[in-house]
């Protein structure tokens, strides 16, 4: 079976043509995102869900790390937050939790942080290696008292696609993976706007579109049925991307 990473990062002209052309081509979408249930089931059955994504040395970091997706939400609300260095920004954590929380950036920075140098694989056909720093998502969820009935974590973002705020989701296994972090730092500096300031998800064993940027709210939920159109993410709902984007 051809590895998904090889398909996405190899010499396939389809992907190198760019994300927009893939999105606009129904045949390309079917080829690229076919067999979600089989791919997800096989990967989860045959692999250790706790296995780590490869990590790299500082000298292996990419000299240029492209920004994926939106480069700036461009809304008045986000501009006001950025102008004040995100001092007024809050990350809301709710849903199936015992104690809904609203974390400031300063509070998140006081939490134990993990720094990891990993490779970002974009569905557009490019990859880059960068360093990310932030608390484990699991730490934040535990601080809010996530309930056992929660099966998924949904991320709501400040950037808009067609007027719709971006959203994504992962399951609890990936949420509590030891490399799944809420990154406030990149390459030794605070996140910049193009890369998702003030906070972005890093879920290192999945493709780049799962790494939601410009986080505003996190909800623990029992089902994805009421999220967007029911597939758990913006691209999944609107252009048939896989919900499970494991690599």
UniProtKB/TrEMBL annotation:
Domain Oxidoreductase molybdopterin-binding: 85-220
A Pfam family per the record: Oxidored_molyb
SUPFAM superfamilies per record: Oxidoreductase molybdopterin-binding domain
PANTHER family referenced in this protein's UniProt entry, alphabetically: BLL0505 PROTEIN, PROTEIN-METHIONINE-SULFOXIDE REDUCTASE
Protein known as: DMSO/TMAO reductase YedYZ, molybdopterin-dependent catalytic subunit
């Amino acid at each position: 079976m051809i590895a998904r990473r090889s398909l996405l990062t190899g010499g396939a002209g389809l992907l190198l043509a760019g994300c927009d052309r893939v999105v606009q081509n129904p045949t390309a979408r079917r080829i690229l995102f076919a067999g979600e249930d089989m791919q997800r089931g096989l990967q989860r059955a045959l692999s250790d869900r706790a296995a780590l994504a490869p990590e790299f040395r500082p000298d292996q970091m990419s000299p240029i790390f492209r920004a994926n997706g939106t480069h700036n939400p461009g809304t008045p609300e986000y501009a006001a937050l950025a102008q004040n260095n995100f001092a007024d920004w809050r990350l809301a954590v709710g849903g199936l939790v015992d104690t809904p929380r609203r974390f400031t950036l300063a509070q998140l920075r006081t939490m134990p942080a993990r720094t990891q140098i990993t490779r970002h694989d974009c569905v557009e056909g490019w990859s880059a290696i960068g360093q990310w720093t932030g608390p484990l998502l699991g730490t934040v969820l535990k601080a809010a008292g996530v309930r056992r009935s929660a099966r998924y974590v949904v991320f709501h973002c400040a950037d808009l696609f067609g007027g719709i705020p971006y959203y994504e989701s992962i399951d609890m296994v990936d949420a509590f993976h030891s490399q799944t972090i809420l990154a406030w730092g990149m390459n030794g500096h605070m996140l910049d706007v193009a890369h998702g300031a003030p906070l972005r998800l890093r879920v290192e064993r999945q493709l780049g579109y799962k790494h939601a940027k410009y986080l505003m709210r996190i909800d623990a939920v029992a089902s994805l049925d009421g999220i967007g159109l029911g597939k758990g993410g913006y691209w999944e709902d609107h252009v048939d991307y896989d919900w499970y984007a494991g690599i």
